[in-house]
Design goal:
With 137 residues, the chain is of the alpha+beta class. It is built from two helices and seven strands; from the N terminus they run ββαββββαβ. 19% of the residues lie in helices and 28% in strands. Helix 1 runs antiparallel to helix 2.
Length: 137
């Protein structure tokens, strides 16, 4: 699973994901992509599950690019622990995804296969998504 090799700080504030995505809204690598339609945190497990689903459907043809990286440590206190005594330990890593963000790109396969593969990948994610294709020049 994806996670940073090292970070400046061990724990981070929760924060809010507001507004449209500032960057990463265009297809830069592949012919087809999966674009986020709502703000949410996508966990490293979801990203890996989606990647596996996409590559399996493509029968390992073509190429897949992951355009998001889980660099946000999400903490959680154990169950049945009283309030206070500091912040909990890091439970998992997540990526903040704003609306309009391209999350996956694929190339080297036909459009119908790409649609099916990205639909299976989208089913693994906790955000609503849309299939996007590069506009021919």
């Amino acid at each position: 699973m994806l996670q940073p090799k090292r970070t400046k700080y061990r724990k981070a504030f929760k924060g809010r994901i507001s507004g449209e995505s500032k960057g990463g809204t265009d297809l830069n690598f592949g012919e087809y992509g999966l674009k986020s339609l709502e703000p949410n945190r996508v966990t490293a497990r979801e990203i890996e599950a989606a990647r596996r689903a996409i590559t399996r459907q493509m029968k390992r043809q073509g190429r897949v690019w992951i355009r998001i990286f889980p660099d946000l440590p999400v903490t959680k206190k154990p169950t049945e622990v009283r309030m206070g005594k500091g912040k909990g330990g890091v439970e998992f890593w997540a990526a903040r995804v704003a609306p309009g963000r391209i999350m996956f790109e694929i190339d080297g396969v036909a459009e119908d296969i790409a649609r099916e593969a990205l639909a299976l990948g989208a089913a693994k994610l906790s955000v609503r998504t849309r299939f996007v294709a590069r506009i021919p020049d």
